[in-house]
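Appendix B. Raw example, untouched.
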Amino acid sequence: MNIKKNDIVQVIAGNYKGKIGKVLKVLREKERVLVEGVNIVKKHVRKSPKYPQGGIIEMEAPIHVSNVMLVCPKCGKATRVGHARLVSADGKKSKMRVCKKCGEMF
């Protein structure tokens, strides 16, 4: 999965198409992501210490990872993601994500 927590993504399919938001949570086993301000649902909650009033609250629901695209921090456009392997001077290997539009590593 190319998307991580705190990434900025754009929704490319569904009712929220075109909306941009920050990834709040990644559910790897279900291949879903929770995006801030996207896929808002209403949930009925009973009184509890967390919700002393109870009632109906609005919250984000997860959407499938195939319905979002990563927004490149450099060019600011939704893009596909490639991967590059880097070897540092001390011999440590690392894997970086690469923007397919501008070639920037992040």
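End of appendix B.
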